[in-house]
Design goal:
Helix content: 25-40%
Largest sheet: 7 strands, mixed
Number of helices: 16
Number of strands: 22
Structural class: alpha/beta
Oligomer: single chain
Strand order of the largest sheet: 14-15-16-13-12-18-19
Shape: globular
Bound molecules: 1,4-dihydronicotinamide adenine dinucleotide, magnesium ion
Strand content: 15-25%
Radius of gyration: 23 Å
């Protein structure tokens, strides 16, 4: 444990410079074994804000070895004591919400008020939730034979490898490390190359409370640093959030080793607005669901909005007005609703989708809001939100995950047609239906093919609710008690024969 308390630093530039260039292994901030670093860029200005340690196989080996050494004592601790330490971490993190919000805003371009500060709060919440669940790591007694005592017990897997993306890096990391740790595993995180700083800071804060080696984090690129983590012989489980493409690679490598994987992949989440829906509520739900404040960079983005013919035009007009009223600007400015995209690569991808949508016959691209005018944001990765109308559910924009501020509003005439379109997707992460009719709502919740279905609301993943996809959206569930028990423990059957 680190004896020197960390003082929150709300100047993200200073904090980035102070912690940049390091992994955190066995309780210490350390440089990459190779001595190499890579640049962390502020997507709002294009300027470099810090370095990150460029991790490779050697750093992963060091981190996994530290985690393996720490795992024996960590697993031997009474579960509630582990839970209490994770709850202590949550309380400590709550004091760092402002600095973490600012740091993640700096490296990701996500607006501080609408996104980044909120994300920092969710991290503490997730840790608190799991800290209180330690005593639920229970087994069963089994009526196998009256002459014998037969029980099952939950045991940790060992060292868990955690691979995270950049869109909500702290939150997605917290939903993985909290259940893994409480269940008695130790962890090595591989952060996303676009956003290595805030997650490093979170781990540094948690290392104030956790024994050395229990939680380690290494920064670097996917093939050079993520792949060795999955392949490492001492890693017994991998949990991943990111693209379908990379998810397949991770699952294939895990398959070679025959270790379990949890995959949270993409989505093309439909939102069905029936003719009898409360249009104001549905419009607010579309804005929240599409995560326009995060430039649409969310796996659950409501990126296909299916609207009944009778209310289609009114819905589109109201949605455009709501998005027009949002302010795009400096992510660190409190007045800003919408920040930037994460990287030039993602910007090029999003612009390509917008161009291909414009070229579709009958398509109309409604550009919303306005680009910021300030000089220092000239190089920023801003893109105006686009609402497409007149597109077909079969077109590329309606089938592929764009991961940008682009949504397709698609007209339907009958309920059955809407359900068929909603389900005609390779993905199955989330879905919503907006209606005042209970029978329709109930029927839709049965028929919609998704892991998370909501009626008349579009809230994000919450601690306590199992979250995850079907079809190509992934494998396994996160955020709940079930997630901890099913995905971070083994069940052992034990028989006492007293004869
Ligand atoms: P990605 O899936 O390639 O990256 C996610 C994480 O996987 C990063 O930490 C990356 O370094 C790591 N990684 C990459 N290749 C790896 C490999 N061979 N072995 C082990 N780890 C590896 O996603 P990327 O490139 O950042 O974004 C591409 C697209 O993925 C986005 O446009 C979006 O559609 C989707 N995506 C979905 C997310 C979600 O929340 N489900 C999050 C981020 C991206
Ligand atoms: Mg990639």
């Amino acid at each position: 444990m680190n004896p020197q308390p960390l003082v929150p630093d709300t100047d993200p530039h200073r904090l980035a410079a102070a912690i940049g260039g390091h992994h955190l292994i066995a309780g210490q901030l350390v440089r990459a074994a190779s001595g190499k670093t890579f640049a962390v860029v502020n997507p709002a200005t294009g300027r470099e804000v810090a370095n990150a340690a460029l991790g490779d196989n050697d750093d992963i080996h060091r981190a996994v070895s530290a985690a393996a050494r720490a795992q024996i004592a960590w697993a031997a601790m009474p579960a509630r004591k582990r839970g209490a330490l994770v709850s202590d971490c949550a309380r400590l993190l709550a004091e760092h919400v402002e600095e973490l919000g600012r740091l993640v805003a700096l490296e990701t371009g996500k607006a501080l008020r609408t996104e980044s500060r909120v994300e920092a709060g969710v991290v503490a919440d997730a840790l608190q939730f799991y800290g209180g669940l330690a005593s639920e790591l229970k087994g069963e007694s089994v009526p196998f034979n009256p002459e014998m005592l037969t029980v099952t017990q939950r045991e940790p897997i060992g060292v868990v490898g955690v691979i995270i993306p950049w869109n909500a890096p702290m939150m997605l990391m917290a939903l993985k490390i909290a259940p893994a740790l409480v269940a008695g595993n130790t962890v090595v995180v591989k952060s996303a190359e676009e956003a290595p700083l805030a997650v490093l800071r979170v781990c540094q804060i948690l290392n104030q409370k956790l024994p050395a080696g229990v939680l380690n984090i290494v920064s670097g690129f996917g093939p050079e640093c993520g792949a060795p983590l999955v392949a490492h012989p001492q890693v017994g489980k991998v949990t991943f959030t990111g693209s379908v493409e990379t998810g397949r690679i991770v699952a294939r490598m895990a398959g070679e080793k025959l270790i379990p994987v949890t995959l949270e992949l993409g989505g093309k989440s439909p939102m069905i607005v029936m003719g009898d829906a409360d249009i104001d509520k549905a419009v607010n739900g579309a804005v929240a669901g599409m995560r326009f404040t995060r430039q649409g960079q969310s796996c659950t983005a409501a990126s296909r909005i299916l609207v009944h013919d009778a209310v289609h035009d009114a819905f589109v007009t109201a949605l455009k007005a709501r998005v027009d009223a949002m302010t795009m600007g400096d992510p660190l400015d409190e007045a800003t609703d919408i920040g930037t995209l994460i990287s030039r690569t993602q910007l090029a991808k999003v612009l390509d989708y917008i161009e291909s949508g414009r070229a579709m016959p009958g398509a109309k691209a409604l550009e919303c809001s306005a680009l910021p005018a300030q000089d220092h944001l000239r190089q920023g990765l801003f893109v105006r939100p686009v609402i497409f109308t007149g597109l077909d559910n079969g077109c590329r924009l309606a089938r592929e995950e764009i991961f940008g501020p682009v949504t397709c509003v698609i007209r339907f005439r009958s309920y059955d047609e809407a359900i068929a379109m909603a389900n005609d997707s390779a993905y199955g992460l989330a879905a919503t239906i907006w209606t005042r009719d209970l029978k329709t709502a109930l029927d839709a919740t049965r028929r919609l093919q998704a892991g998370f279905v909501q009626v008349n609301q579009n809230i994000v993943v919450q601690p306590g609710l199992s979250y995850g996809g079907i079809k190509q959206s992934g494998l396994g569930r996160e955020a709940s008690l079930e997630a901890m028990l099913e995905h971070f423990t083994h069940k052992k059957t034990v028989i006492f024969n007293m004869n």
